Amino acid sequence: MKPNIITKITLCGLLLNGIYTQAQKTNLEVNTTKTITKIQPTMYGVFFEDINFAADGGLYAEMVKNRSFEFETPLMGWTQPNSDTHSFNKQSGIATTIKVLENKTNPNFCRVLINDDKGFEMINEGFRGMGIKKDAQYNLSLKAANPSGSIKKIIIQFIDKNKKVLGETSITPTAKEWQNYTADFTATQTEAKAQLKITFQGTGTIDLDMISLFPEDTWNHRKNGLRKDIVQLLYDMKPGFLRFPGGCIVEGRTLAQRYQWKKTVGDVDKRETLINRWNTEFAHKPAPDYFQTFGLGFYEYFQLSEDIGAAPLPILSCAMACQFNTGELVPLAELDPYVQDALDLIEFANGSITTPWGKVRADMGHPKPFNLKHIGVGNEQWGPQYIERFKVFEKAIKDKYPNMIIVSGAGPFPDGDYFDYGMQELKKLNAEIVDEHYYKNPKWFRDNVTRYDNYDRKGPKVFAGEYAAQSVAIASPDNKNNWECAFSEAAFMTGLERNAEVVYLTSYAPLMAHAEAWQWTPDMIWFNNLEAYGSANYQVQKLFSTNKGTDLLAITKDGKPVIGQNDLFASAVKEGTTKEVIVKIVNTSSKTQAITVDLKGSKLQSKGTVITLTSPNLEDENSFAAPKKISPIESEYLLKNNVAALQLPAYSVTVLKLKMK
What catalytic activity does the UniProt entry give for this protein (predicted)? Predict the structure, then answer.
């Protein structure tokens, strides 16, 4: 990623500029020596859910759609443009799917009959096309059985919309039985909408399966791994945790369609494909071709957590399907398999290689435990049925793993009957951490900065697990990642930070979306087949996450927290490792504001840093055309006598960083 431009200027000169002489002045005070509470390393994290083509077609770098012919329509994603299906005698060839019933996880394969090796071709469209880059290498693999030996060669090519070849390789299928084959080839030009074309030399029949294509240049250079540019955006945030795999996807529309982690580990080609619960959820953006191959499964999630320095936070089904859909329930007397899944997951993550599930992890290449400390039971279920089931899970987990921290849920809304009931019951149970969700308009976020000021410090801790300001309305396809939403979230986050004694984890949601295959907006990261960028909301999240500090300090105006006076919101922290005082101030007004921050206590070095994130218009957004339109500007700051004088632009988020002597 390109670094932010660092402008070596001081803000002192700005104070002399006449444009600011009429700005209202506010005096703030920070006690740099008195720690209110410690800030959890997990304070700011990321929440991944496979919505908006975030896994297949996104983070998981596989380029072939329906590689193993397991979609509901087995040849979805594949075309046979030269096959005449109306008259067998005129066919150049035909591809059909065969189901092997005894193969429970990957029953389908493709049988190809070639009558004319100059005419038959199969084309895979990719995920809204395939993004290829000039001179980049791509790795192809497939399984083939050539029983009669009549097919001499399989030719694989990148083509554009005009059928121009943009790279080529070939495979010689030598075996009569199933065998794995691999080949590498290089793209000759950059193309966002390439497709994969397969042709054959010889006539006769050949069977194909697991036709797969990955870029060579993946994150950490892992073979068949994750998309490098997207992981880089996550890594740059320095997240404290990674929550996965959702979200409503954990629940499923039905229990049969719930996320089952055991089906997502082990050999990739033996993982059972499942329809994605978001594929037709919204009439405004149906995606009947949205499936989960689970190439990105629980092992890969744990591995990603480790890669980006984040604590893993898996969420498991609590035996309740999505209550917005079927609301299917498993009877209490039949919960054992679901509870066992939770216990086995902890063993998979942390068990020694001599345990059954620890051995599975080790066999996959990670003998060292993943150091799992948190596990979530349910996503956003509500009502007595959830509480009844949560009690069963909690007892079983605590009996076997007493130090495991369990995350519970308080329903899908931040208030109302569901929320009130859930919180009341979870408090009775002495729940450790309660997951709260809020998708509200920007004003709600500014008005609710004090939400946690009066939470019981001895009650459950809070996981602000899903939040995002909605510019139009929840689930509206017209929501935007605009600047008003982003700075309103920043104002709210100062309230989260000020209440670090009770707020332990926070994450924006959803994390990412494909520009041409989304179901839900807004989203923190946007990507297409070639590029990815962070929205204005991403820039806010990153700014807070990379400056979270270790100790909470008080920042006040006239002895009171800065919670909206003069449209200002603020929090202050100390970073013990770097010996820095960090002050975050959000100006939500339409005017520049002059402030002073009196830093009492520690002596501070005169040279510091100020980072400003701002944009003049509420509707401004980052985009593929202007991915850095709203991005932080970092400048040198000169402090005088432990008093910082700042000019806060209208609609801005400012971070002041000062080293202690």
Answer: Hydrolysis of terminal non-reducing alpha-L-arabinofuranoside residues in alpha-L-arabinosides
